[in-house]
Amino acid sequence: MSKTKNYTGLKVAGVAALAFGLLAFKKKNDYESVIEKMTIDIDSIYNLRTTQGKAYLNMNVALHNPTDIDFEPYTAGLIKVKQIKVFRNNVEIGNAFHELYEIALPAKSNFLITNIKVELLLLNILNLLLDGQLDTNVSNYRVNVYVEALGKTWVIEQ
Predict the structure, then answer these.
(1) Distance (Å, rounded) from C-alpha 52 to C-alpha 27?
(2) Contact 64, 103 (CB under 8 A)
(3) What gap in Å lies between CA 52 and CA 37, rounded to an integer?
(4) Cα angle vertex 7, ends 6, 8, to 5°?
(5) Which end of the chain is more exposed for a tag (fewer CB within 10 A), N or C?
(6) Beta strands, E only, 22-88
């Protein structure tokens, strides 16, 4: 085999690798854009209770992909929900550590995370209870969802 053929093969391989790298970079930027534009809403709050000296509630939270880009585990990697913080009147009232993997969010779609167990911060809950502000009306609450994706931690704020 001549040296010319070897160099031609290397050039073709190099151009293909460069094209693949540029495509991967564009896709990564697309997926970052999806995460940055993702929105969340509280779907429902239910089952307010106390157990063994701690207070809990359950909630469902919807993630929304408003973009035209599909975000699926097989193309972009996994989205891992690591933590959900719950607020009322801008005061943190509880946390949930929810290990959820393989969230698929096709373009213009929603994903409902169900039955999230939130441990409530007792002092803040007692203050709300004494002020008569503890309720299950979802419009009175907001959440921040902490996700890991593309090797970074992202905060999706409501």
Answers:
(1) 48
(2) no
(3) 40
(4) 90
(5) N
(6) 39-51, 54-65, 80-88
Q: Please give the Cα distance from 30 to 75 (Å, whole number).
A: 11
Report the distance separating Cα 48 and Cα 50, nearest Å: 7
Taking the alpha carbons of 104, 38, 78, 148 in that order, is the dihedral positive or negative?
Answer: negative
Longest dimension (CA), the chain: 87
Confidence tier at 44 by pLDDT (50, 70, 90): very high
Which 8-state DSSP code applies to residue 37? H
Residue/partner pairs of 132-136 with CB below 8 Å, 24 or more apart? 133/88, 133/89, 134/48, 136/44, 136/45, 136/46, 136/48, 136/57
> For residues 15 and 18, what is the distance between their CA atoms, to the nearest angstrom?
5
